[in-house]
């Protein structure tokens, strides 16, 4: 196995191994990709304070997210089509997360189904729900997640309408891939991916195919997906979904202080400050820049997590020091998955943990849940002065 020292090492291997349409699916944002870029680059504007002559023994990165013990404050974010990045990708990622001791979140738009992931793992995972116009399908999906003993429902709020991602349109993104001349030419250079994919449990959307009438091929599925997101989603519907689930609920896609207060009012257990990885509203603030105003709005009345832009353990440390109670990685674990399967996801988690642990120690702390803004140097204009 090659020596992996950082997430970029995995990204390079991922780029070489995975077909272009699935690499582009992960490594892109909407429109000009401004928000996609700034999600990561804004972390670079925050500096860490070094401290010396501090006892660094007996360090711990362990903490809790929505009452669940975690080895570090990092969950695997819901990522659609994970099973096309690597054969049985959701299963492999879930097993890696379970082995490391962090939560795994299964996407509604996963390749492996809820049941397949539950059968392949021994601990409860989280399930991410997209709200659809077909309320009967949504209710059945919630029941399936409940039957699989999922321990939290993550409701995504920022995908009522699909943001335009130029690369996906140009590549003709589908699962399984449509066999056009350009796709075939690219697949011929990704033979190891193809051989693995031949043995995959499935190559279509396991939570949809067989559970929605009238879907028999990729064209039917594409049309259904485009038409099915619930444009009329409002806070009353969010409240009803929470009541229907009956367990822990995390609301994903919060970027505004007033929306954070509304999430608090409907009784959510946590919110995720997220712009969907820069894949929805281009030109929106990066998640890390939006975080302070949201923390000011809700204080410690609700757990505030952060998603979008995290590529290192130092990014996790900075988010925690600013006041987040947990973080999520999407692309970072997908790079590992596409590069080396389950072992690659384990490597991604190991890299992030190592970076966070050492950086925390060099900032003078031994426990991740005790870090605060004292270890940061934040530019005066970081949050912006807007008219």
Largest sheet: 8 strands, parallel
Q: For the CA atoms, what is the radius of gyration? A: 20 Å
Strand order of the largest sheet: 4-11-10-9-8-7-6-5
Quick one: how many beta strands? 12
Count helical runs: 16
Order of helices and strands: HHHEEEEHHEHEHEHHHHHEHEHEHEHE
How much is the average pLDDT?
A: 95
Ends distance: 53 Å
Helix/sheet category: alpha/beta
Unreliable sequence segments: none
**Roughly what fraction of the amino acids lie in strands?**
5-15%
Label the overall shape.
globular
Measured as a percent range, the helix fraction is 40-55%
Summarize the model shown.
Strands 4-11-10-9-8-7-6-5 form an 8-stranded parallel sheet. It has a two-stranded antiparallel sheet with strand order 1-12. The protein has a two-stranded antiparallel ribbon with strand order 2-3. The chain has helices spanning 7-17, 20-26, 34-41, 82-85, 89-100, 114-120, 135-147, 166-171, 181-187, 191-198, 218-228, 235-245, 257-265, 287-298, 313-322, 331-362; strands spanning 47-48, 63-65, 68-70, 74-76, 105-106, 126-130, 152-156, 249-254, 270-273, 303-306, 326-329, 376-377.
